[in-house]
Amino acid sequence: MATSNTSGNVKTSTLRVFNNSYAVYLVNNSTSTGGGSGIWTTMLNTLGYLYDQWDMAVTGADPALSSMAGFDILIWETGYRTSALPGAPQIAIMQGFVDTGGSLFFTSQAFLNSLNNVPNAFTQNYLGIASWTLDTGYTSLLGVAADPIGDGLNMPLSFQFPSFNKGDNAVPSTATTGVRGNENSSALIHNVYNDSKVVFMSACYNAISTTDADPNNQAAFLGRILAWLEPAPPRMPTTCPRRSWLPGSPRFGRTRSIPARKSPTWCPRAPPRVPSVSRSSTWPVARWQGCSRDGRRRASMRSPGRVSPTSESLSRAASTSPVSRRSRGLRQQAGPVEVVRRF
Known about the structure:
Elements: E1 2-3, E2 10-11, E3 23-28, H1 37-47, E4 50-55, H2 56-59, E5 73-77, H3 88-99, E6 103-107, H4 121-126, E7 129-133, E8 140-143, E9 154-156, E10 169-172, E11 176-180, E12 186-193, E13 196-201, H5 218-229, E14 285-291, E15 297-302, H6 304-307, H7 312-320, H8 322-334, E16 338-339
Parallel strand pairs: 3-4, 3-5, 5-6, 6-13
Antiparallel strand pairs: 1-2, 7-10, 8-9, 8-11, 11-12, 12-13, 14-15, 15-16
């Protein structure tokens, strides 16, 4: 509930807090056959991910891209479905999510069948597929060694009816094969497109066991996929560029500490630079020596006899100057004389 201090209006708004955890948006594009979205929500709860879901079988409509704002990972699954698969409007939603920096896990064993063997920008660029072979009919899935998703996997697939077993061989181009199926075909590939991560699985996730030992079960397998899809947290710089500042002025962010006795390297509203040699050779010369600790310019007065050794006549004139003699006498007693001028 929010109250305006100006108008006094009171409005109530729903706020969802994900506690800085990765958030998953689940789109159920399957039917109730084989478990539907219940399989996915069970696995997400098991893995401890925070999520929201859109069930197209219930709503009869596509999810809005705007409703996915703020989510890190989009899961779009079609289960055993072989018709009413994602078309141009649904593909545009997935592409839009990836284009805004989100990660996508798209799993469908019949999606490539719906394209009539015609590649498009989504399959080539986002999914990273070069070509495909339809209806391979996977009976098991074997992970690729050292792959972040597939390493060590050996998962038998179980189908309620043989006709449910489809699955395609998605030959990668820019993508990398993480899980293989029959005859060394690619059943799962992962790709990076414009710094966003995409995983495409052309086998049926629903056919994986829920009870086999890790990592050969639905929860462990999905956990690997989501772990790879998780966007990297913002990288904090280990050092920050040095910034000029005046003592007593506020400093924001992570800044390097500057020794208290070290003068700043820049002063605002600095007066014009004083020439190194004055017009009169009989007077001391002012040289800028940086800034004092209170932020003002500091000048030192030195005799031209020490400043301009290249001019013989100037040196002789300076040696006979009463001011120069006084300056030299002070140097011998107390070192260089520095006068702080306030501007």
